[in-house]
Amino acid sequence: MGSPRPPEPERAAEVRRLFAEQARSERPDLALLCLLVGAAADGELDDAGIDAAQIELDQLAGQLPFQPGGPRSWATALAELLGGRCGFRGSPGDYQRLESSLLHHVLRRRRGLPILLSVVWVEVARRAGAPVYGVALPGHFVVGFGPPERQVLADPFDGGRVLSGPDAELLVQGATGAPLRPSMLGPADPLDVVVRVLNNIRAWATVRPERSDVALWAVELCLLMPSHPARLRYERAQLLVQRGEFLGGAVELEAYADVVTTVDPPTAERVRGQARAARAMLN
Length: 283
Fold this sequence. Notes:
This protein is 58% helix and 7% strand. The two termini are 39 Å apart. It contains 12 helices and 4 strands, in the order H-H-H-H-H-H-E-E-E-E-H-H-H-H-H-H. The chain is of the alpha+beta class. Strands 1-2-3-4 form a 4-stranded antiparallel beta sheet, sandwiched between helices.
């Protein structure tokens, strides 16, 4: 079975509208934003499917013991339920699948990337009243329970294994070669989590040129976030040209050139040359 295919244009536009609305709301809903990413990727995920995924998260939360205790007790309870009884975890092969970055598929397959498994942990635990949050360690997303002075870290990719201080150090050193800093252990903002999910999807698509459709919708969702780097517009323009949408790509290239012309005139002129080349492809 191949990777999911994006929805028809009308549905895709509706998903983008809902995503932008939720991303710019006062309290963005992490689960809903991740499910809307899934709807942008998978034309088979409709509103009823999004509702069903939210209900499943509610039902999983209902299986947790009532107020099990402190941070470590919460971490253990989540590991026993999600990692043990339900079988949520990851493997190296999950990095090769687009589905591993889509929450509705992760809920169905019980497999995913560290960040999506952490979203499951956070959303189930939050619904049960746990003091929980995502922790965006470099290269490996995990989950934190409790205040900084009593923080307990768990690794959903490893079935929810509780991490010791040295474990967390090794994760960071393995990913970056740098030491673990206290600033890395703070709660991750929901919008930053969604951006990281989209960046993973863009990375997946980058090494698969035949899936420029995936790269395009992922970039377009990034552009709907309240803040984003201007260079994403250039990336979108390149993708449009790559996909044969030469006029749209040329317009986007020219718009990007106008943005950077005051700070980087040589780059602006080079991009305008790319726009001319794209328009020439129409002849």
